[in-house]
Amino acid sequence: MKRAIFLISILSLLLLSISCQSEPSTPYNYQQPENINDGFAVGTLEGANIDANLIAKAVNDINRGKYKEVHSMLIFKDGKLVLEEYFIGHKYQWDAPNHHGELVAWDGTMEHVIHSDTKSVTSACIGIAIDKGFIESVHQSIFDFLPEHQHLNTDGKDKITIEHLVTMTSGLEWDEWSAPLSSAKNDIVGIWFSDKDPITFILGRPLVYEPGTRFNYAGGNMIILGEIIKYATGMAIDEFSEKYLFEPLGIYSFNWSLQFENGVFEAAGGLRMTPRDMAKFGVTFLNSGVWNGQRIISERWVEKSATAFAGNKGINVPGTDQGNVGYSYSWWIKEYPESNLFYAGGWGGQKINVFPELNTVVVFTGGNYTSKTYTMTILERYIIPALN
């Protein structure tokens, strides 16, 4: 009898656990984002003509773990921030199981590692450096800079331009997608275990394709761009981005958190920002480079960022639900009947999605480092239909 009661109790607990996973513990109660005087006007879903029922379903499905670890979801539409939701999830920790560190309840004050969204920020800094006259053109050879590494200018590498780096068409041998980001066999990880300085590690690779002719995703390109900014402007990328990008946007909580022993910044994926500040960056691109009436980035650079570079189409990114996409000036490109989409995309589910025709920016952060990400599914299943 006692054994039967025990088994019934265990079964009841299991059923309760399953029930808790399939339904949120409390129904979603939408609240307008708080006005914190950070430059964002705030509004409501109803005021932006967004279907609140679809958004509520998205939030409930995220809360019950349907899309694993989504840490935040923000929507900006028609000049106002109308949704700002945060969820429970793990902080990023490279050497932890599943790269999951401390379990926290995320909120708007907490910086999140944005991983490869950093590439879009580094690209913007290059655009600004050109606008300010520090760099003449994207068509300059990378060896117009990098004075300490001229000995690596061999075998046609002088043909590699800034544009080739920012569009992932440098032609250098690099493998970032065939090994997990927990393995030194992945070049963006292996660089940390090398006895070479990072620029030598990258530029010492053989040139296997003619620059500009073939897409190959390479975080090393962005690390070189960070050094080009340093040599062209006299400022490391953390200082340059603060002066010319973040301060004009009213962004004061950020951290270029990865730096090699010799001072080189990991400009491909080491930036930390809050989701609201990620949204500011996205809104600046939505508004053709303007934030609250002030031009931050040239309209031409935004146009290049929103249009796939020649040949950079039909790319299938492993571990994501993105489908076939294009790649531009360090932004990804996807077309929908409702609107073109260009977005900054980072490992684990970090996304800054810009929909020009819908006048909308959608931001996600997440922690799906060893599982498939579902941000595109959430966009297509709930958010895009809710906007129409």
List keywords for this structure.
2 domains, eight-stranded antiparallel sheet, disordered N terminus, three-stranded antiparallel sheet, globular, Beta-lactamase, 388 residues
Produce the secondary structure layout:
Elements lengths: L1 H21 L29 H12 L6 E8 L2 E7 L1 E5 L7 E6 L6 E2 L3 H15 L30 H5 L20 H4 L7 H6 L15 H15 L3 H10 L7 E3 L14 E3 L1 H12 L3 E2 L2 E2 L3 H7 L9 E2 L7 E4 L4 E4 L4 E7 L3 E6 L4 E7 L8 H13 L1
Antiparallel strand pairs: 1-2, 1-15, 3-4, 5-7, 6-7, 8-9, 10-11, 11-12, 12-13, 13-14, 14-15
Helix pairs in contact: 2-11, 3-7, 3-8
Description:
Strand 1 and strand 2 form a beta hairpin. An eight-stranded antiparallel sheet has the order 2-1-15-14-13-12-11-10. Strands 5-7-6 form a three-stranded antiparallel sheet. Strands 3-4 form a two-stranded antiparallel sheet. With 388 residues, it is of the alpha+beta class. Helix 3 (117-131) crosses helix 8. It has helices spanning 2-22, 52-63, 117-131, 162-166, 187-190, 198-203, 219-233, 237-246, 275-286, 299-305, 375-387, and strands at residues 70-77, 80-86, 88-92, 100-105, 112-113, 254-256, 271-273, 290-291, 294-295, 315-316, 324-327, 332-335, 340-346, 350-355, 360-366. It has eleven helices and 15 strands. It folds into two domains: 33-110 and 278-292 and 299-388, 3-Layer(aba) Sandwich (Beta-lactamase), CATH 3.40.710; 111-273, DD-peptidase/beta-lactamase superfamily (Beta-lactamase). The protein is globular. The chain is 31% helix and 18% strand. It starts with a helix and ends with a helix.
